[in-house]
Specification:
297 residues; single chain; 2 domains; 12 helices; 85% helix; mainly alpha; Growth Hormone, Chain: A
């Protein structure tokens, strides 16, 4: 089991969004933003489809055989698609070496501006990730601790997924009318709005419904801006290194935050837990406001 996770952990980092965004930046080039939106849409639907499929397979043929089915799918479906879409190695290297022509009003950042923007956006992702990883890991007991029944808590949690997908569909349909930094402000700002409405509404049912919807929408859009904002600020050259640098603090904090949040819930209760979440969410939004004003795109 542990040996499997030692392999699976690095594999996830090599094939999921953090690796896929730089690959799309190389292949899709000027259509990168739209390609990233489509990718995150289907990524958001993955759990909706494969949780039930996994349950059915494990019941029908056992979990070991279900794993073998998925391993076979990776070999005969995913691997050929990777080879086909990404092209030959020399083609990828040629594309990767071509920098996006800078826009007259928004050149690719360099020097001190680049370093400052990297630090600020990494802070946005890290602070935002603390909240998402903490609440996502404890969302059902959080609702139950605030007085909702187990059935109501599960139902509210189930609304997050469709809201996440809906926000990505909205970006595909109307995202070309929205500036990159504006989308970033919306994505990051929806999280503190969701938390404040939930707390300000006295944790009533209507406030919980609004929270679940806005929380899901924010989560859905965050996956998109994680790819398109760095592309807009730093360009295509060395994009994989940029994404890795930006997301490393977030990944480390994502691993620690749920345990810390569980301690807060146990010792201080759900209201104090939400108060801490609001503080981190607001700090993330303030950092995003600074980034958008300093480097408009």
């Amino acid at each position: 089991y542990f040996a499997g996770w030692l392999v699976l952990g690095p594999a996830m980092r090599l094939i999921l969004y953090d690796a896929a965004f730089p690959s799309l930046a190389q292949v899709a080039r000027e259509k990168s933003r739209r390609s990233i939106s489509y990718l995150t849409l289907f990524g958001g639907l993955a759990s909706t489809v494969f949780w039930p499929v996994s349950h059915y397979l494990s019941q029908a043929i056992g979990w070991q055989n279900a794993f073998r089915v998925y391993a076979l799918l990776h070999l005969i479906v995913c691997l050929p698609l990777h080879l086909l879409v990404l092209g030959r190695s020399d083609e990828r290297e040629a594309i990767a070496g071509q920098e996006t022509p800078p826009l007259p009003t928004a050149p690719v950042l360099a020097g001190q501006d680049r370093n400052r923007a990297m630090i600020v956006f990494a802070s946005v992702l890290a602070l935002n990730g603390i909240v998402f990883s903490s609440i996502s890991a404890h969302v059902v007991p959080l609702f139950e601790g605030l007085g909702f029944t187990a059935a109501a808590a599960v139902t509210l949690a189930a609304l997050i997924g469709p809201s996440q997908v809906a926000s990505r569909i909205g970006d595909i349909l109307a995202g070309h009318h929205v500036k990159t930094m504006t989308l970033g402000l919306i994505a990051v700002g929806l999280l503190p709005a969701a938390l404040i409405i939930f707390a300000g509404g006295g944790f009533a049912l209507w406030a919980a419904l609004v929270f679940a919807a806005l929380y899901g929408m924010s989560n859905g859009l965050m996956s998109i801006i994680k790819g398109i904002i760095p592309l807009s600020l730093f360009g295509r050259q060395g994009f994989g290194l940029v994404i890795g640098t930006l997301t490393t603090p977030q990944l480390i904090l994502n691993a620690v935050a749920p345990t810390f949040f569980a301690f807060v819930l146990d010792q201080g209760g759900p209201r104090n837990g939400l108060l801490i979440a609001i503080i981190f969410a607001v700090l993330s939004f303030l950092a995003m406001i600074y980034l958008a004003r300093k480097y408009p795109r």
